[in-house]
C-alpha cells in the first residue's frame, strides 16, 4: 500500500518520519511543493516532486484553504482514503464534506497531536481523535491508523466536524488556562503577593493545575487555534480573554 504525506512542515515531517520508520509493509512517500524541503529528506526517505496515485493520502498543510487546494490535486483512481491531520477552520468544514460527497472519497480527520522533542508524546504513542464524513470513511480510517497505534488509542468522534473541533478546542483551552494564570499573576502583583509561591502551594491539590504565567500566549499554534475557536463560536467571553492576553503582552514587552 502506498501512503503519501502531503506537506512536510513541522507537523507533516513528524508524521512522514514516523510512518516511514514504522512502515508495516507500506511504501511511504513524502511530497511538498517546496523543492528545498524535499532536498532535506531525499537521502534518507522516499520523496516525490509531483503528486501521484496513492492508496492513502495524509494531508498536513497549514491552512484549510491549502487543504482544499490539495484535495483538488489528488489522484482518486485508487479510491484512496484521505486523512487530514491539519487543524481545520470549522467555518469551512462544509466545503471539505462537499468535496468528499461529490467525489465519493472516504475523508477523515485525525488531527495531529505531538510535542516536539518529547518522545513520550509524539505521533503515535498517545491518544488521538478521528472522525469521518461517512461511517465507511471512519471505519477505513480506524483500520488504517490501527496499523501504527492501538485501537484503544483512537477515539472515534460522532462526526468529521466534531473531531476537527476537538483539535481547535484543546489548544484554545490551553491558551485560556495560560491567560487565566496571567490574570492571577497580575492580580498578585497589584497587591504585593508572590504569584510563583501561591501557584506552587495551590497546585499541591490533586485536581488543580494552574499554568505558569510567562510573557503571554504567542507563537503559532495556540493563538491560531484560539482565533479559530472565536471565529466559530463568536463568543464575547473568548474575545475578552484574547483582549486580556493582548494587554498582558503589551505590559510585559
Oligomerization status of the protein chains: single chain
What characterizes the major β-sheet? 8 strands, mixed
Helicity, in percent?
A: 40-55%
CATH class label of the largest domain: Alpha Beta
Question: What form results from the Cα inertia axes?
Answer: elongated
Helix count equals 9
Task: Explain what you see.
The chain is of the alpha/beta class and 253 residues long. The protein is 47% helix and 13% strand. The chain is built from 9 helices and 8 strands. The chain has helices spanning 10-22, 35-41, 64-71, 93-103, 135-145, 160-190, 195-202, 221-233, 236-251; strands at residues 2-6, 27-31, 47-48, 56-59, 81-84, 106-109, 128-132, 154-156. Strand 4 (56-59), helix 3 (64-71) and strand 5 (81-84) form a beta-alpha-beta unit. The termini are far apart.
Tell me briefly what this model is.
By secondary structure, the protein is an alpha/beta fold.
